[in-house]
Write a structure and sequence with these properties.
By secondary structure, chain A is mainly alpha-helical. Chain A has six helices and two strands; from the N terminus they run αββααααα. Chain A has a two-stranded antiparallel sheet with strand order 1-2. The radius of gyration of chain A is 26 Å and the shape is flat. The model of chain B has no long low-confidence stretch (mean pLDDT 92). The chains are: A mainly alpha, B alpha/beta.
Chain lengths: 193, 282
C-alpha cells in the first residue's frame, strides 16, 4: 500500500516522459526520447496522486478502524452499517485461517494446492465452495445471536468504548476549515488576475 | 399460574407440508430447570425457538395455538422486552460470537450497549458475569481467537449480562470436551441457584439426571412424556423413541430381571450407590 503510490509515481513519470507527445527533447537513446512537456505533466499529476494517496495512508495508519467506525456512528451512521463494517474486518482473518484449514484438508485428500497458475486455478473450486458454504451455514445462528443481544432493539445504544473530541480537535477543525477556504479563495483570485 | 404456557401449539416451517411441532401443551413454572430430550430432528430446537419468540417472527411459517409468558401472549412483547426476559444460548460456540467487538470484555457488554444501559452499570454487570463464568482472564483477548469451550463461556456471559429470568439453552456442550462440558454445567447450576428458569436441550442424559428438575421428552414433534425427572427417565419405553436413559436405570432393570430387588427410578450414580449398599446390607 505504502509503496504502491511510489511505484505508480515512477511508472507515470516514465510513461509520460517518453511516450507523451512534445517538442522539447531532453535526451534520447535508441528509439526513445524524453520530452520536457511529458515530464512536467507527469510531475504535476504525480504530486496530486501522491498527495491524495499519502493523506489516506497517513489517516489509516494513525486511526484504528474501531475509532473510525465509532466516529462515523456518532455522526449518524446506523449501528447496522457499522456492524457490517466492523464484523467484516474481524471476519477476514478468521476466513483466511479457515481457508488454510480447508486447503490442508484438501491436500490430505490429494488435491494439488501448490504450483503454477493453472494448478491454483483448479484448486479454487474445492477450496472456495466449502469456505462459502460453511460461512452461509453459520449466518442463521449468528443472526439469532445478534437478535438475542438486542441488535434490532430501537433504543439509543450506549458506548463502552468511546472517543470524545478533545479541545485541540476543535481548534484543528477550525484551522483546517480556514486553510481550505483560503486555498479555494486563493485559486479563484489567481484565476481572475 | 404457569410462568410460560404453551397450549396446543402446532407449527409448520415455511415451504414444508408437515408440521414439525404437533399439538404441544406444556406449562413451565418459574425457577425450575427443564430438560428437553429427543432424537435428532424431533423438534427440540424448533420448540426452543417458539419459546424464545423467534418463531414465527424470525422464521415465518404457520403457528397455531398460544404461547404465553406471565399470562401475556408472546406477540404482545416488544423485541427489547423479550431480549431482557429470555436469554438464548446454542450449540455452535463460534456462531455466537457477534463479530461486532474485538475483545471479550466488549463482546460481553455488546447486548447491554444495544439496550442503552449506562456505562458504569455495564461495567459492573460485565465484571459480575465474568466472575460467574470464569472468563475474566480472557477480557482482552479477541473472541474469535478463543477455544470452543472458552467461546461458549463467553456466550453464556454475554447472555447472563442481560440478566434474563429465563434461559433457553440448546445443546451447549455438543462441541465441547468433557472438562469444558463440566464447566458449562457448573455455570448452569449457578444460574439455577440464582433462581433462573432454565430450559435446556441436552443429550448427555447422566448430567440431566443429576441437574434437571423436570423433563420434556419429544418424539417426532410430539411430547411423549413430561414430568419429574425420576418418572420420565425410568420409563424404559423411551429407548425405542430414540431417547437415552441413564446407565443406572438400565442397570437397575437388569438387577430386577436377575431377581435382585432394586428400587424403580434410580437415575443417578449417587442413588445407585445408596441402593447397592442397601441390597448388600450395609
Ligand atoms: N428452517 C427450517 N425449515 C424447514 N424445516 C426445518 C427447519 N429447521 C428444522 N426443520 C425440520 O424440523 C424438524 C425438527 O428440527 P429441529 O427442531 O432442528 O430438531 P432437533 O433440534 O430436535 O434436532 C426436522 O425435521 C427438521 O428437518
Ligand atoms: Mg437441534
Amino acid at each position: 500500500m505504502r509503496n504502491s503510490v511510489g511505484v505508480l509515481f515512477i511508472i507515470l513519470v516514465v510513461i509520460q516522459t517518453f511516450f507523451a507527445a512534445g517538442e522539447t527533447i531532453l535526451f534520447s537513446f535508441w528509439i526513445f526520447s524524453a520530452k520536457l512537456e511529458g515530464l512536467l505533466f507527469a510531475l504535476k499529476l504525480g504530486f496530486v496522486l501522491a498527495n491524495i494517496g499519502g493523506c489516506l495512508i497517513w489517516f489509516f495508519a494513525i486511526t484504528t478502524e474501531k475509532d473510525f467506525v465509532l466516529a462515523l456512528e456518532k455522526k449518524g451512521l446506523s449501528s447496522k452499517a457499522s456492524y457490517v463494517v466492523l464484523s467484516t474486518l474481524q471476519m477476514v482473518p478468521v476466513l483466511k485461517k479457515r481457508s488454510e484449514t480447508i486447503m490442508n484438508a484438501q491436500r490430505a485428500r490429494r488435491v494439488e494446492t501448490e504450483g503454477g497458475l493453472l494448478v491454483r486455478a483448479k484448486v479454487f473450486v474445492p477450496t472456495i465452495v466449502p469456505l462459502v458454504l460453511s460461512s452461509i451455514q453459520g449466518t442463521e445462528e449468528r443472526a439469532l445471536t445478534l437478535e438475542a443481544r438486542g441488535f434490532s432493539v430501537e433504543t439509543k445504544s450506549t458506548h463502552l468504548y468511546d472517543i470524545e473530541p478533545k479541545p485541540v480537535d476543535k481548534t484543528l477543525n477550525i484551522i483546517t476549515g480556514l486553510v481550505f477556504i483560503l486555498i479555494v479563495v486563493g485559486r479563484i483570485v489567481l484565476c481572475l488576475i | 399460574m404457569p410462568y410460560i404456557d404453551l397450549k396446543n401449539v402446532t407449527y409448520t416451517y415455511p415451504l414444508v407440508k408437515e408440521p414439525c411441532i404437533k399439538d404441544i401443551s406444556v406449562s413451565i413454572e418459574k425457577g425450575k430447570f427443564y430438560a428437553i430430550v429427543g432424537a435428532n430432528g424431533s423438534g427440540k430446537t424448533t420448540l426452543c425457538n417458539i419459546i424464545r419468540g423467534f418463531i414465527p417472527g424470525f422464521y415465518q411459517g404457520e403457528i397455531e395455538g398460544t404461547v404465553e409468558l406471565e399470562g401475556k401472549s408472546l406477540e404482545e412483547y416488544t423485541l427489547g422486552e423479550l431480549t431482557s426476559k429470555i436469554g438464548y444460548v446454542f450449540q455452535n460456540p463460534f456462531n455466537q460470537i457477534t463479530g461486532a467487538r474485538d475483545n471479550v470484555y466488549e463482546e460481553i457488554a455488546y447486548g447491554l450497549e444495544n439496550l442503552g444501559v449506562e456505562v458504569p452499570t455495564i461495567r459492573k454487570k460485565v465484571e459480575e458475569v465474568m466472575e460467574l463464568t470464569n472468563t475474566a482472564y480472557l477480557a482482552d483477548k479477541n473472541p474469535f481467537e478463543l477455544s470452543g469451550g472458552q467461546q461458549q463461556r463467553v456466550a453464556f456471559a454475554s447472555v447472563l449480562a442481560l440478566e434474563p429470568d429465563i434461559f433457553v439453552i440448546d445443546e451447549p456442550t455438543s462441541q465441547l470436551d468433557p472438562k469444558e462440558t463440566e464447566r458449562v454445567f457448573d455455570i448452569i447450576d449457578k444460574m439455577k441457584k440464582m433462581g433462573k428458569t432454565i430450559i435446556l436441550v441436552e443429550h448427555k442424559i447422566e448430567l440431566i439426571a443429576e441437574y434437571a428438575d423436570d423433563i420434556i421428552a419429544l418424539e417426532d414433534g410430539r411430547v411423549v412424556k413430561f414430568g419429574e425427572k425420576h418418572d420420565v427417565l425410568s420409563d424404559l419405553s423411551l429407548i425405542e423413541k430414540g431417547i437415552d436413559l441413564p446407565q443406572t436405570v438400565l442397570l437397575a432393570d437388569e438387577l430386577r430381571k436377575m431377581g435382585i430387588p432394586a428400587k424403580e427410578k434410580i437415575i443417578t450414580k449417587q442413588e445407585m450407590i445408596g441402593q447397592l449398599k442397601q441390597i448388600m446390607g450395609k
